[in-house]
Fold:
Amino acid sequence: MDYETIIKKALYCLKKNDSFLIENNLHEVCITHKLAEYIQNLIPEFNVDCEYNRNIDDKKIVYTLEKTLEKEYFVKNFKKEILKKIIKQYKKEEKLVRPDIIVHLRGKNENKIVIEAKKYNNASPENEAEDLAKLFIFTDENETFKYDIGYYIVFPKKFSDKLTIKFKEIIENKVYKIEIN
Structure:
């Protein structure tokens, strides 16, 4: 399964058929739902779900966020205050997570793609750090979830006439930031 091609094709379909959602500032969930539909059409043998909060029969909970935010990537790319704020938020309560989009087989630990997405006006450094940390955990072979690959997508204010999609590797073959112009 060529994940990059699937994501590119789905984003091109989103631009072609649903740019109205982006250009009229509709809610992120509305946009990710349509993107999930296009992904589902490309890989019908898997389940594609939005805001899915289960890991087989258990709640989908992140326990190792603090340890993840201490990794070199986060220390180099985000201010200490941002990382401390996220850690404080996660220490207050058990953190049930719902990735924006997942590709998996329901009821099994066969997890393929996990996507966190933001609209351009909600892509703060704090939100980016939090979403990337979750993607690191979701794709970590030593964690529970074991997704093959994770993507962080920021939807632009408007799709350009010639859509360009860049995959920027964060960790080797596991987590990518997708830049859309």
About this structure: The CA atoms of residues 69 and 83 lie 7 Å apart. The mean pLDDT is 90. The beta strands are 47-50, 54-55, 58-59, 61-62, 95-96, 101-105, 110-119, 149-155, 165-171, 175-180. The chain has one domain: 3-180.
